Amino acid sequence: SQQGEEDPQALSIQEGENATMNCSYKTSINNLQWYRQNSGRGLVHLILIRSNEREKHSGRLRVTLDTSKKSSSLLITASRAADTASYFCATDLNNDMRFGAGTRLTVKP
Amino acid sequence: NAGVTQTPKFQVLKTGQSMTLQCAQDMNHNSMYWYRQDPGMGLRLIYYSASEGTTDKGEVPNGYNVSRLNKREFSLRLESAAPSQTSVYFCASSEQGQGGYTFGSGTRLTVV
User: Fold this and answer.
1) Is A84 helix (H, G, I), strand (E, B) or coil?
2) Which residue among A11, A107, B3, B66 is least crowded, i.e. fewest CB within 10 A of its CB?
3) What SS3 state is found at A12?
4) DSSP annotation string for A29-97
5) Are A86 and A64 in contact, with CB atoms under 8 Å apart?
6) Is the Cβ of A52 closer than 8 Å to some Cβ of chain B?
7) Do A95 and B50 touch (CB under 8 A)?
8) Quick one: pLDDT at residue B85?
């Protein structure tokens, strides 16, 4: 399916460490996006990477996209307790965006 | 504040009752969406509206209807609620090709 699948399902790290989350998908895409969701809240858009791009940065976030492997990764550097949330990748194809089940990140102070 | 507004935030229905979830955005976006989120399953697309006057089925449309009332508003209707529709419902909007989706804060629906 087009839907992305995140790996790992859960990740626990210490404040200051880096966190890496991966996303795999199965079909062609126009772009891939990453979102954060704090408990009980809506999703917040973090970053979008188009199918012809390989890497993008936004602050402490770094996203890579490998369309030949149909995979993407999200790196959060120098993590903070406030980064504790669920992170979702979403694949967009012709205005139809599908989400994975997410990675639950816990950053311990 | 610009964004997506959903009402109500919480709702409990009895099986067979009907209700409409409301969504409005003030960002002049053309596209609007309804998703449901269930534990461990991420978000699944119910219906979307690429532009005013059009609606299309998503991944899980059965049991739902939608109305794109105007450019700002996109409502989701449950005609006869079932316990399987217990979920958190999110509305979102976007301008295609110009960035990510903006989500509302969600409606937590319980069908008993």
Assistant:
1) coil
2) B3
3) strand
4) -SEEEEEEE-TTS-EEEEEEEETT--EEEETTEEEEEETTTTEEEEEE-S--GGG-EEEEEEEEETTEE
5) no
6) no
7) yes
8) 97
- Using alpha carbons, select from B111, B112, B107, B110 the residue that is nearest to residue B34: B107
Tell me how crowded residue A40 is: count the other CB atoms within 10 A of its CB.
9
Q: How far apart are CA A22 and CA A103, in angstroms?
A: 9
Interface residue of B10, B101, B107 to substitute, partner A, most A CBs within 10 Å: B101
pLDDT in tens, A41-100: 899 999 999 999 999 999 999 999 999 999 999 999 999 999 999 999 999 887 778 898
**Arithmetic mean of pLDDT over chain B:** 93
> HEC profile for B18-65?
CEEEEEEECCCCCEEEEEEECCCCCEEEEEEECCCCCCEECCCCCCEE
Query: Strand B107-111 vs strand B10-13: parallel, antiparallel, or unpaired?
Result: parallel
* CB-based contacts of B3, cutoff 8 Å, min separation 6: B25, B26, B27, B102, B104
B53 near B66, Cβ under 8 Å? no
Q: So what's the pLDDT on residue B97?
A: 62
Confidence band of B1 (pLDDT split at 50, 70, 90): low
Q: Is B60 on the interface with A (CB under 8 A)?
A: no
| Overall average pLDDT of the B52-80 stretch | 95
Token pair of A48 as six digits: 């979008």
What DSSP designation does A3 have?
Answer: -
Take residue B8 and report the two structure tokens written for it: 């109500």
